[in-house]
Amino acid sequence: MRTKEDEISLFQSIPWISNLLRDDSFETIATPSRQPKPTTEDSFFSNTLNSPTTISACLTQYRKPQSPQSSSTANVEELRTFCTLGQDVNGYPGTLHGGVVAALLDETMGLLIMIRGEGGDASTRDSNLSQTPVTAYLNIRFLRPIATPGTIVVSAQLKEAIEDRKWTIEAAIRDEKGRTLATGECLFVRIRSRL
Q1: Could you give all domains of the chain from N- to C-terminal order, each with its CATH number?
Q2: Is the pLDDT of residue 91 over 80?
Q3: pLDDT band at residue 4, thresholds of 50, 70 and 90?
Q4: Residue 55: exposed, middle, or buried by beta-carbon count in 10 A (0-12, 13-18, 19+)?
């Protein structure tokens, strides 16, 4: 498994991403869902889609909160994840599978919820989803084919938070030319225990 430093080095070698990594308004972190967990949470991204021929590298940045008093990630409203795609995630030759497009959008929007601390401690979470935010709906617009192999950026932005139980998030996948390839909108809801 690559370290955060390995991922940074790899993405710094890609000129258009290197420019984004230098943006001081963002904090660079290892992508949380790429880290194996004892609960098997995130296994789809940490194991299944973590190989040289699927999604070989991921790195995440979140925009630092505007408030100088807030060093907490609880107020983060925007993030972006860089992904290097291989040929084993194809639907058509040289084209990313639509299901993987959906997974990337959903995962990046979910990362925003997790970075904000809305999901609790993933290392102790079990199959009981009570109090855990989950995807209620995901709407996707496929605008252009996503070429593989290649590198993309998936950005997510919080649009609305209702109390501590609903979050509307929008996301987009872009290529090195800044073209929007796909967009998504998602509603996350916190599951409540039944009485």
Answers
A1: 4-127+145-157+172-183 (3.10.129.10)
A2: yes
A3: confident
A4: buried
